[in-house]
Amino acid sequence: MQQPLAYRMRPTKIEDIVGQQDLVGPGKIINRMVQAKMLSSMILYGPPGTGKTSIASAIAGSTEYAFRTLNAATDSKKELQIVAEEAKMSGTVVLLLDEIHRLDKAKQDFLLPLLEKGSIILIGATTENPYISINPAIRSRTQIFEVHPLTPDDIIQAIQRALTDSQNGLANYHVKIANDALDFLSKATNGDLRTALNALELAVKSTNGDSDGNVNISLAIIEECLQRKSLSSDKNGDAHYDVISALQKSIRGSDTDAALHYASRLIAAGDLVSLMRRLLVIAYEDIGLANPAACARTVSAVDAARQLGLPEARIPLANAIIELALSPKSNSAMSAIDGALSDVKTGNFGDVPDHLKDAHYKGATDLGHGVDYKYPHDYPNDWVNQQYLPDKIKRAQYYIPKENGKIEQRLKAQYEQLRKATRPNNY
C-alpha cells in the first residue's frame, strides 16, 4: 500500500525543510549542528503538522546517520533496546521519539546513559509544553526548540513541490489547481502541512481528468476534501484574515452582536483553531488589566472548547465572546511590555545594579555583587525603598495605567504611590 503524500514528501536533507527557518535556515542552530556533524539531543514542540518529524528525518539524511522512529506511548522498552543494539553495532542512530511527554520512567532510565554517551541522538517530538510535561532528567540532557505553524506561503511552497515531483509527488496526474483553491488550502489548514498535503492527494485522486488528461481542482473540491467551507468567494485571498481582524476590532469596540457574527463565520468554516487563538490574544491584549478575571475565564472557555470540539465548542466560546465584548478594556500591559522591549532591542539599558546581582558564589562579595541589597521582608509591610532599574534608565516608565475598570484603578493607585516613593524627582 502506498504511503500518504505527506509521508512521501518528507525532506531527506536539511535544505528541503519548509518553514522553521529560524532553526534550520543557513547559519541557524540546527543547520549549524548538521554542517558540523555535532548533533545534540533535542526536543521539538509545537502543533501537529508543523515539521517536527521532517526536521528529524532531514537531520538524519543530511548527516547520513541511521534514522529510526518510535512512539513513547505505544512502543515498549524492547524496541528501545533494539535501537540501542543497532547504535552499538553500526554507530550513531538518530531516534525520533514521538509523544515524548508520554515516556515512562523505565524507558527514561534506559535512555539516559545512551544520551550521555551520544550513541543515540534523541529527537523528541511533542505537542505539549516540555517545560511542564517532560521529566527534568530528560530536559536537562536536551536542547528545546519550539516549532511554529507554517505560514500560507510555506504551505503553498510545499504544495507546489508536491505537484511537480514525479517520483514521490503528484506530477504524473497533471494537476491544475485554481488560485482560490490553492489559497484556501494554504490558509484553512492553520499551518498544518500534513493535513494540507493529504487533502490535496485525496482531491487529486478522487477527481476525474478532463479530455486533455489534466486533473482540475476547484475550490469546491478542496472544501469537500478538507470538510471546511471557505469564508468568502472573493479572489483577493484576504477573507480569512479580514474576518479575524473584524472579530478582534468588534470585541475591542464593544459590539457584541458584530463579534458573534464574525465568530460564527469562523465556526461555520470549521476554523476552531483560529477562533480560539484569537480570543486568547484579545483577552490579554484588549481587556487585560481592566478585567483579569475575564482573561482567566477566556482561557477556561478555550480549554473547554478544545475538549468538546464542534459543534458544542461554540457554547463556551460564545460565553467568552460576550463577556469580552462587554468588559471594560485596557491595553496598558501590552503597551508596557512593548515599551520595555523597545529599549532592550535598541540597547537603551545599562548594567544590572551591583546590589541586585547574584551573590550565591564565592568571590561575589569581592566584586561588590549583592552588597547593600535590602531584603524587603525584613522591613515593615515587606517593602523598602531601593533602586531596581539600571542607572541609565532609572527614571523609565513603561506601565501607563488606565482607569477603565475597578481592578486597574486599584493597580494605578498602588503603582503611583510606589513610584512617588521610589522616584520622587519624577513628580
Strand content: 5-15%
Number of domains: 4
Unreliable parts? 233-237
- Measured between the Cα atoms of the first and last residue, the distance is 76 Å
- CATH architectural label of the largest domain: 3-Layer(aba) Sandwich
What would the principal axes of the Cα set say about the shape? Answer: globular
Helix content: 40-55%
Determine the mean pLDDT.
90
Give the CATH H-level superfamily of the largest domain: P-loop containing nucleotide triphosphate hydrolases
- As laid out across the biggest beta sheet, the strand order is 2-3-4-1-5
Q: Which structural class matches the secondary elements?
A: alpha/beta
Compute the number of strand runs: 7
CATH class of the largest domain: Alpha Beta
Described by strand count, sense and barrel closure, the largest sheet is: 5 strands, parallel
Specify Rg, calculated over alpha carbons: 27 Å
Could you state the order of secondary-structure elements as H and E?
A: HHHEHEHEHEHHEHEHHEHHHHHHHH
Protein name: Replication-associated recombination protein A
Domain AAA+ ATPase: 38-150
Keywords: ATP-binding, Nucleotide-binding
GO molecular function, one term: ATP binding
List the helices and strands and how they pair.
Blueprint: H1 5-8, H2 21-24, H3 29-36, E1 42-45, H4 52-63, E2 66-71, H5 77-90, E3 93-98, H6 105-117, E4 120-126, H7 130-133, H8 136-139, E5 143-146, H9 152-164, E6 175-177, H10 179-188, H11 193-205, E7 215-217, H12 219-226, H13 239-252, H14 256-268, H15 272-287, H16 292-308, H17 314-326, H18 332-345, H19 406-422
Parallel strand pairs: 1-4, 1-5, 2-3, 3-4, 6-7
Helix pairs in contact: 5-6, 9-10, 9-11, 10-12, 11-12, 13-14, 13-15, 14-17, 15-16, 15-17, 16-17
